[in-house]
Sequence to fold (405 residues):
Amino acid sequence: MNIADRSRLRSSLKAALLLALVLSAAGCKPSTPQGGPNFPPPVVTVAAVEPKDVAVTYEYTAQTAGYREVEVRARVTGILQRRNYKEGSVVKKSESLFNIDPEPFRVALARAEADLAVAEARLAQAKREVTRLRPVIEARAVSQKEFDDAASSEQVADAEVKSARARVTEARLNLEYTRVESPISGVASRAVVSEGTLVSGPNVLLTTVTQTDPMHVIFGIPDREHLALRRDVEAGRLKLPRDGRFKASIKLADGSAYGRTGALNFTDVRINAQTGTSEARAEFGNPNGMLRAGEFVRVVLHGAVRPGAIVVPQRAVLEGPKGKFVYVVNAESRAEPRPVEVGEWTGGGWIVNSGLKGGERVIVDGVLKLGPGAPVKVADGKPESGAPEKPAGAPPAKPEAKGKK
Fold:
């Protein structure tokens, strides 16, 4: 280092020393870093944890179906002559929907009646013959064989009369069957075949009639939810309604609620191997025809209760590397992370199955400013309890818990 460089270095050191002396004389101190000990603890809002009975609902995608859906078919073969109803209209039981050309059946009935008359005449003749021979056989004026033949002829004639009467009844029924009637009251669908078509009896579908009041709502329940519910019931964490008679409500395709409530009336014990669900069915009144067969809706089941459940607001539950946890204010007014096992959603909160107990205070607002063991100050005012309303700007809540017995 030359003499000039050494001179510049000495000048720089003297200037730095002079600046430090000036600052010291002026009483200047360095700033305290943000979050240091001189800053007050963050203010947080807490929710008091209290066990209580919580009603649980279960929601599924469903499809409506008529209470009864009947295929209308002709019982006889013939030419379709006339359609007697307006497609899509309401029809009554026994109302005529179609007519098949009746003339061939009238001819068949007349022929059967004529055959019956012939059989009855033969029976009358056989009876007269037996009546004539009875006193003669007692006088032994005729042989026993001749009398037996006459008695047998009477029995054959009587059987022929019965057979002819059966054919007459059959022909009369076939003639009546040319008037195709609705088997139930309901809404008739479109006609599958048109007038002039040869209808080959029951092999040809003519139309369908659907009874829409009451209406069935059919949905599938995943097998895993059956298992989860069964475990919760056995553990005493869930109470189902008596005999599994859940009450039900419907959300229509536009999100609006259907105005009538129904009830679960069937749950299949079999599991569909393709979908992994078991079929269930609820029944709803539909006097105004608002529900139509085949539309997709969402069915909500009511009646299950979580006894002594602990519910915390959804914004209080955080996700960590080891799962979900909450911050609890401990006795030292510090934020203590607490791992929790959560169950279903209910309203705007989580049902906590384990990790919390009654009387503890869970931090709801201000959790993003905290770290494990950080000192906190609880906001003045009455602590929240249960699951508060969702704050403005919060993400929409997930659907309520799914599952069923």
Remarks:
- The first helix runs from residue 3 to 26.
